[in-house]
Amino acid sequence: MSDYEYELRRNGAVIATGRLQLDEPPIPGELLALGAEQVRIEDVLHLGTSRRLILTAG
């Protein structure tokens, strides 16, 4: 299990940030359940020792 920071964006604006844990490595283009909402993984950034997901909501 790996820890990730995330930015959730809608229409280009960041609407939420947080942390989550995933069992499998994320792949851009995949859908992910974040609470009750389905979001798309747009990018996975490797920032030194941390990893950040860029997510988009519909």
Structure description:
This protein has 58 residues and is mostly beta strands. It is built from no helices and 5 strands. The chain has a 5-stranded mixed beta sheet with strand order 2-1-5-4-3, with no helix packed on it. The model has no long low-confidence stretch (mean pLDDT 95).
Total beta strand runs? 5
- What spatial order of strands do you see in the largest sheet? 2-1-5-4-3
Number of helices: 0
How far the N terminus sits from the C terminus, by CA atoms, comes to 27 Å
Strand content: over 45%
How would you summarize the topology of this molecule?
Elements: E1 2-10, E2 13-22, E3 31-34, E4 37-47, E5 50-57
Parallel strand pairs: 1-5
Antiparallel strand pairs: 1-2, 3-4, 4-5
Can you give me a brief rundown of this structure?
The chain is mostly beta strands and 58 residues long. 0% of the residues lie in helices and 72% in strands. The radius of gyration is 11 Å and the shape is globular.
Key features of this structure:
mainly beta; 5-stranded mixed sheet; 58 residues
